[in-house]
Design goal:
By secondary structure, the chain is mainly α. It contains 5 helices and 2 strands.
């Protein structure tokens, strides 16, 4: 989730083990995707079910701003605002394939 990178140990583990792909969206798109989810405790903290859309979007903007310094450490970025899930998965797959080929090429040389 978006808050994973806040924890230093998580960042160190990800950096040590591989590459980080950041999936980004605008606060408005995030709102549309998350509005019916109840498993986002930080997003929903202090927000009741009848909260106005703008209140939730402001909360999303605030969380994104707080986390931006961590998101910017990603190796790859994919803007998902106008992408279908399938297109996003294809982009992730291409990145992984590229990294895999690069790693395999380097491994053969040794």
């Amino acid at each position: 989730g978006g808050g994973t990178l806040i924890i230093r140990e998580n960042r160190e583990f990800i950096k040590k083990c591989g590459n980080l792909i950041c999936l980004s969206s605008s606060p408005e798109v995030a709102y549309r995707r998350l509005i019916h989810k109840r498993d986002r405790p930080i997003l929903l903290a202090d927000i009741n079910e009848e909260a106005a859309e703008n209140v939730v979007i402001e909360r999303i903007e605030s969380l994104m701003e707080e986390r931006m310094k961590y998101y910017l450490k990603a190796d790859y970025f994919i803007d998902t605002d106008k992408e279908s899930i399938g297109t996003t998965v294809d982009k992730i797959s291409r990145i992984i394939n590229k990294l895999s080929k690069k790693k395999h090429k380097n491994w053969k040389r040794k």
